[in-house]
Amino acid sequence: MARFDVYANPVAAERKHTPYFVDVQNDHIDALTTRVVIPLRRECVFGPQARLLNPLLSVGDDSVVLDTAALGAVPTSELRRAVGSLRESRLVVQEALDTLFGSF
Predict the structure, then answer these.
(1) What CATH number is associated with residue 47?
(2) Is the N or the C terminus of the chain less surrounded, counting Cβ atoms within 10 Å?
(3) Alpha-carbon distances, residue 89 vs 11, 32, 68, 100 (angstroms)
(4) pLDDT in tens, 4-16
């Protein structure tokens, strides 16, 4: 598992509105049984976006919103194989995290 990898939401019933999670945990902390992830929600169901907190991103053909304030831990066993990566958007994701935690 690697930081900024994207995984399908392990809860099938939620995939309609939240198809993915992005892993934002430091790669050096890999002994834990959980990973810190941020939900990626479909733009059409998200509602108003805060400028820096909720950037619009692309995963394949899907436009998704980074729901930064809803980050949480998911058991590693629930995150099967990566379906994509947001490494090219890492600065945008980091800016959203900095906005949430006040490190800007």
Answers:
(1) 2.30.30.110
(2) C
(3) 25, 25, 14, 17
(4) 999 999 999 999 9
Parent domain of 70 = 5-101
What residue ranges in 2-104 does DSSP mark as E strands? 5-8, 20-23, 34-42, 56-59, 62-66, 72-75, 84-85
- Single pTM value for the model: 0.94
Closest CA to 23 of 41, 11, 44, 40: 40
C-beta neighbour count of 5 within 10 angstroms: 21
Domain count, the chain: 1
